[in-house]
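Ticket #4471: structure export looks truncated?
Reporter: QA, pipeline team
Priority: medium

Steps to reproduce: submit the single chain below to the structure queue and open the exported record.
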Amino acid sequence: MCGIAFALVADDDEAEHRVVARFEDNVRRRGPDAFCATRLVKGSGDGTHGRRLVFLSSLLQMQGVEARRAMLRDGDRVLLYNGEVYDGLPVGANDDRNDGEALFEALVSSGSSVASVMSGIRGPWAFVYYDGGDGDSDGEGDIDGDRDGNGES
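Actual output as written to the record:
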């Protein structure tokens, strides 16, 4: 179980602080072993026309000694990932990467074909992927992700 959250807010410190304060405790409870927050600023950057993309993630370490990340970032590309890949990505028992790292590599190498990558994955998952190169963001959960039946994963 990990926690992930994404918000798009106005480019000002007060707006960002309100969002982080609202979501941080809930995200931390979903994964008490590690927490990460980052932001990207897009637009004018003068506090009036720009936007901040705020990414939060936490981790519940279930296996292994080395803590893995629920957030992966390479420049203006960011992936928040919570889940397991049973099939659809080349991740083997002898692979040093975790499922999220393998997914991030597949998304980056696929260009803008996020749907084709995600449609082939089998297992429970939820993600937010932002590709600053084309300005697109995508997010979704697997078809069975609504485990408690109330619309929340």
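Status: closed, not a bug. The export was complete when the record was re-opened. Leaving a note from the reviewer for reference: The chain has three helices and seven strands.
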